[in-house]
Amino acid sequence: MAKINVRVILKFIGMLLCLEAILMLAPYIVALIYGEGDAMAFLLSIGITAITGGALFYFFRNARNEVGKRESYLIVTSIWLFFTLFGMLPFCFMPNSLSVADAFFETVSGLTTTGASIIPNVEALPHGILFWRSFTHLIGGMGIILLTVAILPMLNHQGGLILFNSEVTGISHEKLKPKIGETSKKLWYVYISLTAILCLLLCVGPMKPFDAICHAFSTMATGGFSTKQASLNHWHSAYIDYVITIFTFVAGINFALVYRAVTGDVKRLFSNEETKWYTVIVVGATVVVVAGLYVTGQNSSFEETVRVSLAQVVTVITSTGYTVGDYVAWGPFFTTIFLLLMFFGACAGSTCGGAKIDRLVVLAKNTRNEFYRVIHPNAILPVRVNGKAISHEVVSKILAFILVYVMVLIAGSIVLTALGLSIEEAFGSTLSCLSNIGPGAGATGPVGNYAFIPDIGKWTLSFIMLIGRLELFTVLILFTSYFWKNS
Amino acid sequence: MKIIIAGAGEVGTHLAKLLSREEQDIILIDNDEEKLRELDANYNLMTIVGNPTAFMTLKQAKVHQADLFIAVMPFETRNIMACTMASKLGAKKTLARVDNYEYLLPENKAFFDSLGVNELIYPEKLAAEEVITALRHTWTRNWFELCNGELIVLSVKLHDNAKILNKKLYEVTTADSQFHIAAIKRIHETIIPRGNDEIKVGDIAYFTTTPNHIGEIRQLAGESEAEIHKIMIMGGSRIAIRISSYAPDDMDIKLIECDRQKSYKLAERMHDVIIIQGDGRNVDLLKEEGIRDMDAFIALTDSSETNILACLTAKELGVQKTIAEVENLQFISTAERLNIGNIINKKLLAASRIFQLLLDEDSSNAKCLALSDAEVMELVAKENSKITKAPVKDLKLPSDLTIGGLVRNGHGMVVTGNTWIQPNDHVVIFCLDTALHKIDKLFN
Predict the structure, then answer these.
(1) How confident is the model at residue A1 (pLDDT cuts 50, 70, 90)?
(2) What is the pLDDT of residue A197?
(3) What's the pLDDT score for residue B267?
(4) Minimum mean pLDDT range among A223-232, A460-469, B85-94
């Protein structure tokens, strides 16, 4: 196999950093409007990012645009890494700046749409920084590469396609249009339109426009950063709870299906097996939580109990992680239910994290078949999803995926317990970061945050968030010896 | 342009890959999911698993928006059926691959139009035409006629009697010379030569020229025009039948076919041809049938390996011109290095024919003639494109591409440093694979 084309990787990084510098203009403008002393931080960050990116792009502008499998994995992982490294600059330069570990954690958490925060009092932050936190959700939600492929015509070729495949989540990646650039554009239209609609709806309610914009970003990207310390509970508004719950739910559906539904093919959305399972799981989990709250006598009025349960279930399964109810305070049974929801997350091709329901469906069916085969060893039983048989290779890939998922989960938990966290907190935080949710268990639960974790723990969790967002293999493949061997 | 290709066989796949690199929306339909998976994951195109003769699949592919529907499945009946359905559903133009020469006859054109099949291609016919061209121009390795023969691209292997050996290019060509050496293939690499490069023995040189100056090049290359009168063909394929009907009267054809039954059938169809039943790999048989006196040997069996070996044997036995059919695309570059004259491949021929049709349809397309690691393209210079801004010598062209010639208002001409390219000129470009992306910048 050919040597890795390092030049093209550096060229891409340069190009993407220029893009990031442009994107940072948005929070800079916000900072200028509010004038809270953070504008300088953004200006400095934009300068550094633009110069680095511009220099890289200039030096390697002649690199051949040949992207093979290895280059694509390296490009995707390093772009996410570099986006974070430069995206954390405003946190480092702002007044009362964060430490490097904290800034990195906060930025990864934003870009991977985890929404786990190390900032004890969010409301003390200047508006520019608050906006940047939510804006990183928007950028990372649909994927940095997807954004790039959509806006840069030079990526609308084979190389762009391979990059696209290493970033987009789920087992299979449905193309909406023959050209990858067009497909990405359509997905972004859906994403941006939904964000805009949500923003308008929130403005109509009791939210201020600034909060509405930030929450719209966080919600559609299923991130979870809020502009208020109490998250959604700050407003105590049924209207906001319902609107956000509905949009979070939509954000958990495959965007390709949403696009088809919007363009007239509604049937496909509702007949899709993954969407059906997603709905059933959300409804089922809500019923269990409501029943649990009644049995343990923690219920308020019926409407509020259902609303809070539903909102909390949806916010967790879609890996958003707003605070509506506090499942840690409700009791260990509820924590277990929510941790289970965290594990699988919502549909593939959405902005959600987790192992994805399509994998859950395949695994469940495969397991059922294995049981049947105990009695009928010669039965030919393909795993069928949406009426199509899934090949053995795909099933075994999913099994490997789940195994690696669990291994990363265990490894992360071991590191955190070694740092002195309780088992519950270590496991909860690792799972939460791996699935890009936000709230974990115990002190990192919905009303807590990650500030108390030692720096090593923060770096570990940052890494886990990145692995989780890029669905394990894209990042972990870089740690295998055969990836680097020229044979 | 939206192009739907039905059938992910070798022609379909090759076309889809080529077209997906350009500004085309390609949808590839096939029944076999296995064939499509790899393409879907690695190429900038969309694949649909399904039967191309099913309404459901065609509707899913939004065939009513298609500008071109190409059916290249293994069976002609299905291709015609698919094209009929596609055109009735609203595809603008359809093209079917057929296996029957009769369908191509002009009197049947109206019938196929009424079925909604606009174009038919018959790869065997293209291959036969290619063979005849090769037999007419025996001293060349390749012979392409561009823009209705106004411009000719040909390649010659240079032996030690060539007159241009060991000379710098600027000594060979003068300002008013009517040819251009656009590329040189030396052992494993292709070179785009500059004025200071020399030509060495064993090089294959690619010339562009106008039809009137072919003789000049032949003399420079030290080659003589050999008349071909006696041909031996091995393998009674459909290409062989086509060749026998296209061959001029002064060509005598001897055909070797190993299947007895088939030999009788062939004898029935080809009256002027002597049919010998036997194994063409048998040297004794070849000698017995007088291979030493033959002017040309053409190997057309189903097996590419057999064809290559048979041609090498024929060369050893003293046949001047050999032509081998090589259907495995992977073998072609290896086969080119061996001392076999011409190589024909039905799939590449079919694909480049379809490309040509696309060029007629929409002038923003490039037509490619792939030469292992280099390509020849015919492009139309657009208004205000970079290439029309200055004379060629001032354009600072990258070193891995060169302009071979151009056709302006239907007249071919060779491009020199002083030529100033005008909008709407058809320009012939030679480029290495590394230069493909630079071409876009020049022409758009």
Answers:
(1) very low
(2) 93
(3) 87
(4) A223-232
Query: What CATH architecture is B230-319?
Result: 3-Layer(aba) Sandwich (3.40)
Does A178 contact B27 at a Cβ distance shorter than 8 Å?
A: yes
Q: Name the residue in chain A with its Cα closest to that of B34.
A: A391
Quick one: pLDDT band at residue B435, thresholds 50, 70, 90?
low
pLDDT for residue A15 is more than 80: yes
Supply the ipTM of this predicted assembly.
0.72
| For chain B, domain boundaries | 2-121, 138-220, 230-319
| Identity of the residue in B25, B27, B44 whose CB atom sits nearest the CB atom of A161 | B44
Nearest C-alpha in B relative to A165: B41
> What pTM did the predictor assign?
0.78
Residues 144-183 of A with CB under 8 A from B: 156-158, 160-162, 165, 175, 177-180, 182
A-chain residues within 8 Å CB-CB of B43? 158, 161
Domains B2-121 and B230-319 share a fold: yes
Question: For domain B138-220, which CATH number applies: 3.40.50.300, 3.40.630.30, 3.30.70.1450, 3.10.310.30?
Answer: 3.30.70.1450
Rounded to whole angstroms, the Cα distance separating A420 from B105 reads: 85
| A157 contact residues in B (CB cutoff 8 A) | 21, 44
Strands B94-97 and B68-71: parallel
| Domain spanning B2-121, CATH architecture | 3-Layer(aba) Sandwich (3.40)
| Closest-CA distance of chain B to residue A133, Å | 34
Place B424 in a pLDDT band, splitting at 50, 70 and 90. Answer: confident
